[in-house]
Amino acid sequence: FTLGCKNKMVAAVHDHVLLFSDETCAGLTGIELSNDETNLILTLNNKNISIHSLKDRRLLQGWNVNVIKQKSTITATAVQGHISSEYMCILNNKQIRIWSSEHRTIEKGRKISLTKPAYALHSSVLCGPVIVYSDGTVDVVSQLNDKYQTSDTGRRVIQSTVLHCTTTYTVLAVLTEIAREGNRCYQYHLNHFTPDTQNTDTICKSEIVLQIDSPDYTSVLLDTTALVTDNNTLSIITLWQNGCLYLAKIPLNASASTPVWKKIFTVKSKVMKFVKMCMVAEDHLVIAGIQEPKSDKEILAMLDIEYMSVLSWQPLSPSNSQSRQRLIRMIGRRQVLVSDVRGLLMYNYSSHKSTTAAVLGSKKLDPERLLDIPEIMTWTSSTSQKRSDRDFDVDTFKILTSPNQMLEEAAYVELAKSFIETHSSHQSITQLITNIVRAIVDKSAEKMDFWPSDVLHAAILTHKVDIELCSTLFSVILERKDSSLLLSALSNISNISEDCLVLCLRTLLSWDESVLGCDISNIDSSLSPTKSALIDAVVNHTFNDVFMVEYIKQLTFTDVLLLQKYFHHKIISSNMGFTEDSVQQVFTDKVIDWMSLLFDVHFTQFILLPDGVSLLNEIYETISNLTCYYSSLLSLKTVMEAIFTECRKTKTQNIGDYCIEILHL
User: Fold this and answer.
1) In sequence order, which residues have a C-beta less than 8 Å from that of residue 577 and are 6 or more positions away?
2) Coil, helix or strand for 436?
């Protein structure tokens, strides 16, 4: 056993990041990566397709199938082709739609009619889009031909995935189910795609069929996951309704056979159909939706396949029989996407060389009781980290996060600031900061005279406050009317949600100037400097206009008028378009975006109410004058550049100040 685990790789799953809230990905039915793996392609409600950036989570593009026909539905997850970079989806199981990013609607693209129902589309670097039919047969879209269509085989596809994809060969796995004499029979089809050596435009396809028998002949197969290893061996793991996990390893060049299955684990879950899994390495499996050891909470766990042990886990929101189907998808080599009731979460995971004591051996443990094993250890992001980087003052942390143990405010502020400064480089600083902020928010809600704003300011400056806590944090800051802390939060916290931004604007506009200690009698703008700075901080944040429209409707028309007057003032006082300050130029662009959005949402009131009409006319006149003015400046700029060019020439050629060339210009 010692020799066996000397070079063993042990993995751990770490804290999550909320990529998209439940509102953004409501009705999520499919997740795919773009061909350059920088964007996510989400299929929503079988009607919408949206492209989101993985870097900053912005919505880049979106399409809706209702423009084609009211009853059209997307029946397979949309994908992007590796060769053509076009987007593809299947409508109503019988038609392929292909369109590019330049098309504003799917209707503008091409369509391919199918002679039998389709199940899924996949993209390959080698052969482009590949279609999987509902009966388990597979075809390359570019080689579709009626003569290749086969009759119904009696099979039903329940899963398909690309296991390996390179320019030399592609492996596509299709899991099918056949009902035989009341029992369920499952087959795993491995479709190999390779270039034709005789004709470079043709793709050769071969198929290996593996039989998967139910362990008790009655259990239902819920999920499978597989991985192609470096030595061209396929590792397949199956999850059955009774919670059993089975493993089989088959050479990729094997012929059709019944593989030998080995039971590796038994898991428990309240709703077993929501358990999903994904192999991230040859010996490691990420599984979502199982129960935590010694409790009934749902977790995302990292399992060691070879030694049948739980390495680490993270909590998940509980699911129930009414929840939507959970999705899991590996992206890159260090991240896993999991859909939850909270939205779409991204978990990081890592792997390290094991010590002998870090892995539990299967010879000493009963597989049926492995979920009672406590977590082995918390793996850090680097095996060379010092012990001091992993440890922290637990007693101090308990005092800072336990409402019943909190000190007086002065002592609490001093202790908390020292703790944050000392642990600023700790590997779990995000979790530590989030827990401290949450404790302060809860305590301040109970006790009005408790408000350690200095601690919150120090926590915000670390840029480690969890995005899920932002809404609660901003609500408390606004309730306390702490303008300096609000400005710090708006300036240092990114990815603030649209509803939170509108809440800040709505509350700011309702504040009395006397509360802020400002006198606006001698100020050109209708807002005080403090309010102006806070509104500017809100405007500086990026937002998704599709979701922002719904929240802007919450603003009263009085608030909208005040904001438009302020934005009007900012445009008049800015050097729009003629400034070398790129930051100022970006801010001006955002002001114009906000003005346009406010007009779009409240345009009816602007054209019906007298105050709105007069302001609309003023802004229209200003924009017209500025457009004319800057157009003239552009012409003048061209003339001035010509003059300066001639002046430089005259100095070198000793031409007088009143030469004919200068007088002509």
Assistant:
1) 585, 630
2) helix
